From TrEMBL:
SUPFAM superfamilies: Homeodomain-like. Keywords: DNA-binding, Transcription, Transcription regulation. Residues 196-301 form the HTH araC/xylS-type domain. SMART domains: HTH_ARAC (SM00342). It comes from Chitinophaga fulva. This is Helix-turn-helix transcriptional regulator. Pfam families: HTH_18. GO terms for molecular function: DNA-binding transcription factor activity; sequence-specific DNA binding.
Amino acid sequence: MSGFIHIQTISDIFKLFRLEDVVHHPLVAVIDFSKVTEHISDGTKISAGHYTVLFKDFNTSVKYGRKIVDFQDGSLICMAPNQVIEMDDDTESTEGMAGWGLFFHPDLIRGTALNDRMKDYSFFSYETSEALHLSEKEKQILLDCMLKIQTELQENIDVHSQAIIVSTIELLLNYCSRFYGRQFITRKSSNNNVVAQVEKILTAHFTGNATGEKKLITVKDLAEQVHLSPGYLSDLLKKETGKNTQDHIHIHLIEAAKNILLSTNMPVGEIAYSLGFDYPQYFNKLFKQKTGKTPLEFRSMN
């Protein structure tokens, strides 16, 4: 099969992998890829209406946006509903495939504490190139969580089933947060290069703004320039510097504003426009929030 596939329901997952005969829960599924015989053709684009956590131990690539990414052995990716990936399968058959997939519909967690916490699991917004690379011990910990969910799905459904499944999913996601934290630490050298890139880009950008460039750089702009997703970049910077991407942008912006205020007689409105603000009042508000003074108060006191 090829083209575009949108997996709307959990049942659609079982149809995709030709597992229709398997009895399944309507809102959550665990798939053992070693038992999957259906081959997904190169170029197939897939999106889903649910959260997806994929761990694999077979060679394949996926295309996310314009990037071709080697989804390496022993790596894990998490995708939020409606993200799109493109398969580029370099296996000649499904023989020897190994790994698992956890799929859960937003309705499963709606009204639970986990639903409120999902925004904290920022790795669901990472690109596939920012996959979590697991140690053997970490693989086993996540597998144990998966087996607990699978066991619960095979039991007779009772009043405790949803709470147990949801709490185990939350446990798995908490482990993913911990393991991503470890990955940020073990990749400190490459992370430091990213921090240096960010500083260089922002310095050049706001030097340009001081001479009249009228575009306020966004988190998305900055992430694209360092070839990372906005979520991953923000988490990386937070881990390395204690400040997220927006904080870094604001630091450089305020420094540029201070330099212009003290070295020129430009009206505050013109300074705001030169820095990329469409409305001077937004600049005034941000400047006071960050410095405790209005731009005019800062100028008059220095």
